[in-house]
Amino acid sequence: WLMRECVGEMKIEEVRKRLGLLSERHDVDVKGGEIRRTSSRFCFGVEHGDYNGTELFGVGTDRFIWMAHKATDSTRFRLVSENFEDDGVIEIDLDNIPPPQSPEYAHSWARFPLGVLYVLQRENYPITRGMNAALVANIPGGGMSRSASLTLNLLLSIMKINNIPIGDSLEEQMKIIDLAQAVETDYIGAPVGNLDQIMIFFAKENMGTHFKPETNSLEYVALGDDAPEFAIVSLDTGTDRPGLEKSTYKTRRKECDDLAALINREFGLKNLAAVKTEEQLKKVLARFEVDMPDHCERLKYIFAAQQRFERMIDAWKRGDIETLGSIFREDGWGLRDEYSISGRELETMCDIVRTVPGVLGERMLGGGDKGASGCIVLADGIDAVRHAVEVAYPRAHPKYKDKYAVHSCRVVDGVVLLPGL
Questions:
Q1: Model confidence pLDDT, tens digit, residues 137-149
Q2: 345 by DSSP, 3-state: which?
Q3: Could you identify which of 157, 260, 312, 319 might form a hypothetical disulfide with 226, taking C-beta atoms 3.0 to 4.6 angstroms apart as the criterion?
């Protein structure tokens, strides 16, 4: 299937140059260290299924965070990001980590390295060496899991320079997922699930990742040989969501958790994903829909997405991209109309590309509100998608006319360690 480089994709030579200049501008010495690259992700399903207990399927994609880093002889951390260069150098004293959700860091990317160090210390991992780091990223500001990518990059790098081993078994590697999730839930205050962390950490080039929470098992799924040339395309709206803890996501998560607690007490079903049959759905709706109509709309989306999930995996295995795209589109309708998690700019992108011949499916991506949408498109339709967006999107949202982007994604490894500067 299509492995096309997008216009404007950053090459590693350019990245290395930018990392070097960034570190020099801010006197953050990273020479002689390493560069860790962590990917974005593209979820085929079930979006918002992780915290509701569903199975998950997705791929790693080539929007990245690159972090040049080097161990120091002290326990101080000095980090600078090109994306937030106005923040200057983030300086962290290991013995003076502020408590979770400290107001002074609520709008700073510093909350991520602080959160990683907080969680590692809380879990009694020995941190004896500090780190200098310079970061460059091109992941959109929502929809492709920038926060999970950053957290994993920091976590793995700090663990490595402190000689903290990571086991080879799935059980041991899932501890990394738990730690990364805890950074966002326990320190930052974002009630995230584990979809993003799983899809990035375990991502393999040219493979889909299928995670089953009931058995805590993971399987790599190859795309069927009969697949036509196609691409998954990121439609970056140019908008930037400030954080899931400040978004509609937090509200939706609470609605689902509240309904799950009620159906567990009433029907013995532990989460929304446990509502698997039409009979179970009818019973739950009969009991709660009058008093909790919005909550039940969220359940309807989860139920329908689960019904589509097996067909989606089967379509991937057979290389039936038309069916894959159709299911992706149906999920988009459900996310927009039942889960009510999309946003104006996200739906504008979807409306534009839905009219383009060769586009098989489109929907918003990720946590919602802002960030990126995505589409599945046959190879000969990619240029038409780009042209349609270039014409229509700036007219609909002139505020973002210089910020939006169309990116034809490659499916890549989630975590790669590269030679340093």
A1: 999 877 899 999 9
A2: helix
A3: 319
